[in-house]
Specification:
5 strands
Length: 144
């Protein structure tokens, strides 16, 4: 039933945040094909580029990094990476900056590098809305 729900969310593009819409528009303006609320098994990605496989999640609140929410996204990223996706977390809002074209430029550059096979696939990247690298305080792959 969770897979069916995920597919329905993709078809209806339910609940996109303003940041997701903005980043999606910036990526499309750079010539990338972006699918909002893309269903991967039981999960919906905020934004997806199917080729190369890049999952983009927009994190706008500190709550993503704590408690149940943190454990949930660790499970999600482990699943995505195991299934061939390269993941990008884009932190935005208080202390991280708003979404800018530099974040889209980072994703575009990553996509180009993945196509050219100059970077490893099945990893995750953490950036700020400004496009600058952000520290991954807790690793999705090393947490318990």
């Amino acid at each position: 039933s969770r897979i069916r729900i995920a597919r329905t969310r993709q078809e209806r593009v339910t609940k996109p945040s303003a940041a997701e819409v903005l980043l999606g528009d910036l990526l499309v303006a750079r010539g990338l094909v972006v699918q909002p609320q893309f269903a991967v098994s039981r999960y919906n990605l905020d934004l997806a580029i199917e080729s190369p496989a890049i999952a983009i999640e927009c994190f706008g609140g500190g709550w993503h990094a704590s408690g149940h929410h943190y454990e949930r996204h660790v499970k999600r990223f482990r699943y995505l990476i195991a299934n061939g996706w390269t993941c990008v977390i884009v932190w935005h809002g208080a202390g991280h900056g708003e979404i800018t074209d530099r974040a889209a430029a980072y994703v575009q550059s990553l996509a180009s590098d993945l196509v050219a096979a100059t970077v490893a696939t099945r990893k995750y990247h953490v950036i700020r809305g400004s496009g600058m690298l952000a520290p991954a305080v807790k690793s999705c792959m090393n947490s318990t």
